[in-house]
Amino acid sequence: MNLRYLVLVLWIGFSCGKDNSTPVTPPPAPSEATFRNPIQNGADPFVYRKDGQYYYMQTVGNRVDLWRTEKMSELNSARRTTIFTPPATGANSRNLWAPEIYFLNGKWYVYYTAGSDTEEYSQRTWVLENASADPTQGTWTQKGRLFNAENDNYALDGNILEHNGSLYFLWSGWPKGVNKVERQEIYISKMENPWTLTGKTTLLTTPELNWERNGFGVNEGPQVLKNPQGRVFMVYSASYCGTDDYALGMLSLREGGDPLNAADWTKTQQPVFTKSPSANAFGPGHNCFFQSPTGSENWLLYHANTNTGEGCGERRNIRMQPFTFTSSGLPQFGEPVATGRSIAVPAGE
């Protein structure tokens, strides 16, 4: 195969999908107290809860959309608003991926990835701000690009850690000086404010294990998780998303540890959540977490393919299922719940 063609195929597959697919119609639930996966079509899900409302986002591709609902099990019928349409040209005009929304310092912020209409491998992280109490209202203004000059390279999948009164930004990117599809790593920097990084950049994890290198080496989609005692974990997606073996790994921050000290993080040697052919779950990954309306349950939200070989594109769909913590405080995600199987709705819905 021509090398230029191979790189192009990888890059297209890596694009996290476009929003031109036929929407998934969730199977009818047998009662009001249950739902079934998948809950809707899409990829790269993220949700943030405030004042009884869940604010949900996923990759759309050519814009940034925001969903609002009181019930995550009814996401497919939630109110949906386009909050940002990119310019026709420029560094922020193409491939808008994996947006995430947060309420920080009294304002709303959205972090998303976008690239140029003229330059390949140009993905970078961008920030939007809104002072309205309701993020589906008001005005979203562009705060610009979020980056650290120490390694201003290909970057995507930004996530926020709030820890001991400080903000930290985690993202997936290419090593300094690398300008081709080779490997993706996960980095962390401290934040001076919600749109500015400060100080050093720390490499947290690189795809060094065999199960992280299917297709090619990828660590991406970092997601912070805290247990009831406040211990910090970082769950991430590993391997190329176009393979059935895309899966979740995890790093644990030692109690009292410094998030910027890589030695204070411990990496699992095996995936913590992976495919299940019997459950019609292939390439499960790019997850996030939320709690039920009562706050008594923890839920895992992720995307997967229903059939083998469907790749990193428009056939991915969104799923959710509860998880627990062990007596020692470690998250226990189990296996993907089979499509079509009834699951009790989150407590309080």
TrEMBL record:
UniProt xrefs under Pfam families: Glyco_hydro_43
Entries under InterPro entries matching the protein: Alpha-L-arabinofuranosidase (IPR016828), Glyco_hydro_43 (IPR006710), Glyco_hydro_beta-prop_sf (IPR023296)
CDD domains the record matches: GH43_LbAraf43-like
Active site, renumbered: D44 (proton acceptor), E220 (proton donor)
Site (Important for catalytic activity, responsible for pKa modulation of the active site Glu and correct orientation of both the proton donor and substrate): D157
Coiled-coil ranges per UniProt: none
Keyword Transmembrane helix: no
Keyword annotations from UniProtKB, A to Z: Glycosidase, Hydrolase, Signal
GO molecular function, a single term: hydrolase activity, hydrolyzing O-glycosyl compounds
GO BP of this protein: carbohydrate metabolic process
Superkingdom assignment: Bacteria
Keyword RNA-binding annotated: no
Family: Belongs to the glycosyl hydrolase 43 family.
Protein name per Swiss-Prot or TrEMBL: Glycosyl hydrolase family 43
Species of provenance: Siphonobacter curvatus
The organism's taxonomic lineage, starting at the top: Bacteria, Pseudomonadati, Bacteroidota, Cytophagia, Cytophagales
